[in-house]
Fold this sequence. Notes:
By secondary structure, chain A is an all-alpha fold.
Amino acid sequence: MNEVQSANVVSAVLDEGYPGPVPPEFAEQERVHAALSNKRQLTWAKPSPELGARIMLRASLVRPAAKPRRWPLAMAAGVALAGGLSWLVVLQASRPAITPQPEQPQQRYADATPVRPVQSAPIDLSLLTRLPARSEPTIVASFEQPLMREVQALSEDTQRGIDVVMSRLPVGMSFASK
Amino acid sequence: MEAKPASMKTPEQLAARAAEGSLEAFGELVKRFEVRLFNFLLRRTGSRADAEDLTQEAFIRAWERIQRYEPRWRFSTWLFTIAARLAVSHHRKRRPTLRWIEEEDSDAPTPFDRDDDINSGAKLWRLAGKVLTPEQHTALWLRYAEDMGIDEIAAVLKKSQVGVRVMLFRARQLLAEQSQREQEASRVYDAKAGMRAPVLRRGDEGLAGSLS
């Protein structure tokens, strides 16, 4: 039996008046309970004789706060609701009635003649031969360079963000790139 | 039909009258609960002056808010809840420098100075003031001095009912163990030097063993 179960079992009998004996392993609890239940052995200290008079003097100068009433709130809510509803009714009544217009058939295309198939221009293969030798990496680099710069910038921003977050955490180490 | 005099009414009836504005009914409530509340707060604060100030403050707060009292709770539960909250905020402002020692304020002679009976309630209350946490002591006080039920103690302390059961269980367990140890240590001291055993506090568990 854990402590909570033990407490529940003992308390049920000693504090809540359930019939039945306290299990023998808790006999000490029963002994303390019996001793503390003897009110004659309790020492009651006496306050100053004028304490009561002091309290009553102060009480006579203070007015009890009025009970918080709920009806003003309920009434305000009701008035607001009624106002809102009547405003909606007036708004609806003042709007011109909109009747749906029958859709008129419209001509979508002015010229309905079939489109001629497009003849693609022949590729001039002589262009390829005119390119300087080993120019391919240069062309690829010219495409990739802005992308790589962007990737580098993103990576730096992310690293900076991680550093800021980690510096606020009490882990005592930095993940900054060396 | 003649109305009952104030002294014959229940606290809940008096609170209802006070809520109608009767200062006389409130005065009767002050008369009935003044000592009880003062003693409760004395154990929480450890100081007579602070306990009196807080007693006064708790009653004034109760009077100001008497309209909000719900009769489904006993009046005492409501009043002690106000007092417990005041005590908590007082504790936050200023920690008590010393714990209340039960015998100090007794008007009667102190018959428990040489009380070796571990079944003595007075001795257990004295021990409770020394070894229990303030919250455990409050729960024990409300249970045995104020006869509150588990649900009422839970309301005053803002705890769950299971939490209160566990708190009471631990408090009784601690008192049982401590009173046993004190009695054993007392026997050893008396046998060796005719001296009184000191009260063992939590953490001194080894002392009893080393003495025997």
